[in-house]
Write a structure and sequence with these properties.
mainly alpha
Length: 382
């Protein structure tokens, strides 16, 4: 039975998928989840935004990005600094509360620009991409790739976490927390927290739409070509470094936005949220979901984060081992991730299905009949 013609249209399927996702996020989730669970889901959506960028850079571009915590942390800390400054201004204080408790009476100079909301928003949107462009130019122009790039990106995440830990003017080891308002809206109000969930959901849908467009564009084809045959692409006149830099910058841009949303949703940001372990956790979710697909990284990040929260409540020490086992099983036996299980099952069924004979052999017990000869041919033969 063939599918209807309207459903076979890819545009209809895509817009239908976005419509279903919007209904689930904006109508079903707020209706069936408690305020606590809805806030947890908003946190997981932030992880999914990061995963969408990793899927583009790693799944399509072949860049094993183990340091996305760097860009996630830049967006998160910029937002946290602005929220702290806004709270201090509203209370009539010269410095945020944590500085006053630590005995810091003068506001550091690099804090002052982030007192302005437009400056903070621009910095969130621009700074992670600029940092990624500088790092990508230095790395990809030197043709650093593979395991060397992965180790370097992971080292950057570790270095940033260590740097922030030693800076008491940014909260040190404990980080920044106790935010009272988000651009004038009280975070203690459940309706405002629901608004944050809607912002995260809308941002995720927009990010997925952008990633899909990039994957289907000429650039997406070129990115896959660089992943599979980099030297051939260079021979054709393209610079693979520039192609990789664009994907790396886009992934960093998404991570910075996710970090900025993570801060008011969770209410705290610390070096523990942006170091090596969170960066690897982002990658595990993408690998389990299916890094080469569009929705695999998103669903994998949400599913892994949800499972971690649910299982950690019952088995606090067992989740780490289960996460490692899942990663090994996926890498070893299902390289395409959970998103590749359905095509794999379909191929298995087709291979095991008995082949149908297209033609039926004629019975052998009947005598062969001569072919009829046309009358005109008989006359001519005479």
């Amino acid at each position: 039975m063939s599918s209807p013609r309207w459903f076979a249209n890819s545009s209809v399927r895509v817009w239908g998928g976005f419509a279903i996702a919007a209904i689930l996020l904006f109508a079903v989730a707020p209706a069936i989840l408690s305020d606590f669970r809805l806030n947890l889901l908003a946190k997981f959506l932030c992880f999914a935004i990061v995963a969408a960028g990793i899927g583009l850079a790693w799944g399509r571009g072949g860049m094993l990005t183990l340091g996305q915590g760097v860009f996630f942390g830049l967006g998160a800390y910029i937002m946290a600094m602005h929220l702290q400054m806004a709270d201090a201004t509203r209370l009539g204080n010269d410095v945020p509360d944590f500085m006053d408790i630590a005995g810091i009476r003068e506001l550091p100079a690099y804090w002052q620009p982030f007192a302005s909301a437009p400056v903070a928003i621009i910095a969130i949107l621009v700074l992670p991409g600029v940092v990624a462009a500088v790092l990508g130019y230095g790395v990809f122009k030197r043709r650093v790739k593979g395991a060397y790039f992965a180790i370097l990106s992971q080292a950057l995440a570790a270095a940033l976490a260590i740097l922030l830990t030693g800076q008491q003017t940014i909260g040190g080891f404990t980080g920044l927390s106790d935010f009272r308002a988000f651009f004038g809206f009280k975070l203690s109000d459940p309706l405002n927290r629901q608004m944050l969930f809607f912002i995260a959901a809308g941002t995720l849908l927009a990010v997925v739409a952008v990633v899909r467009q990039l994957m289907r564009s000429r650039y997406g084809e070129l990115l896959v070509a660089v992943r599979d045959q980099e030297e051939r692409v260079r021979f054709l006149g393209y610079d693979p470094a520039n192609v990789k830099i664009v994907a790396y910058v886009v992934a960093a841009f998404f991570a910075g936005i996710a970090g900025a949303l993570f801060t008011p949703i969770v209410g705290i940001i610390s070096p523990a949220d942006i170091g090596v372990v969170p960066s690897i956790a982002f990658l595990i979710g993408v690998a389990i979901g299916g890094r080469t697909t569009l929705l695999g990284p998103v669903l994998g990040a949400i599913g892994v984060a949800w499972a971690q929260t649910a299982l950690s409540e019952q088995f606090p020490s067992g989740w780490t081992y289960l996460q490692g086992v899942l990663f090994i099983v996926v890498v070893g036996f299902v390289p395409a991730g959970l998103a590749g299980l359905w095509p794999m099952l379909g191929r298995f069924v087709r291979e095991r299905r008995p082949k149908r004979e297209d033609s039926v052999s004629a019975p052998t017990d009947l005598p062969a009949q001569p072919l009829p000869v046309r009358t005109e041919e008989k006359v001519e033969s005479r």
